[in-house]
Structure prediction request, 397 residues.
Amino acid sequence: MKIFKARGLLAVIILSAAIAGCGVQDKPHNNQGSTIDEQSPTASPSPTPAPTAVIKEREAIIYLTDAELVETVENPVKLSYETDLDLVKAALTELQKDAGENALSLWKPIEIKSVDLEVGQVTIDIHLPDEARLGAPGEMLVIETLKKTLFQFDFVQAIELLDDGEKVETIMGHVELEHPMKRE
Amino acid sequence: MQFSFMSNSDVPVDPNAPVDPPVVVNPEDPPAASDVFDVVIDPGHGGSDPGAKSVLNKWEKEFNLSVALKMKTLLEKESKIKVHLSRTGDTYPSLDDRIKFAENLKADLFLSIHANSAPGTTASGSETYYYRDNSIAFANVVHKHLIAGTGLKDRKVKKEAYKVIKQTTMPAVLVEAGFLSNTTDSKILFDDASQSRIAKELAAGIKEYLNVK
Prediction:
């Protein structure tokens, strides 16, 4: 009887220690995951309540073009963000900046009116001032640099680009716009 | 091998074969469709879509239409060519409209006229785009004449999936005559004599490709 009781108690102690151990182990792992892993879902309710905002940071490549408009140029940057949507917005902000004489932004003169993220789809509503219109290769690069920049984030599966809220055939008159553009 | 040899030997033996076997395509049949070539010239943009803005404060749509109208005048003198413009004024046919226009005409050739623009002011020169393999030869001929017309840097013939040259079915090319974001290019593209020279060369390119003398 005595022995049995002691064993039972021991079992309880071991079990509770294991549970506690799990909890302790889980915490740092979780933190690390949310800092580096960009795959945490945004649309679906997050399992972590996270009442205190945690500023995360990650490296990303922003795609620009050379002065001769023949290829895309990679500009590595560090982006700070709290949510996946923030990350998309931070990348778009960088996409609108030049990074030197031979790393020019194709998005600089394009007005970004709104950015949303829902179930893996980024929706960007733009206003295109007439001064922002480019030739055929420029328009191709506008689309290509957007896709390359946003599809590097695993949570982005599709991009819907709207022109003043409309699903237009083309934004600059050469390239047919897909609605939405899907990850290839 | 043996079988074919036997059947071959049969032919000369047959005395009831005074006429040629019906293998030869009748060369007398005139290819009626190529009596007159339908050529679509597509001045890019127009109306609500002005295209790129030039550093000289003019718009791409003006250049495109001006060259297209000059080409029309030149090609109308050719009895074997019928010219069709996708727009003759400041209007915007959609890209689908332009494609349907050429397809409904069963056009033999499609030439879209554009001018380029880049971020920054450095980029300069003329380039010609094709997408489908049946357009490569036409692109090469047009590009040679485009360079002669603009006198600008040769940015070569390139392949890209622009809608009007992708979704049409006849040989189709899109020319980017020069960069409106570059001052030198802009001055040439908006000079009347230069426009006439570009139009003359592009028309000559069409005639050369169609072998119309």
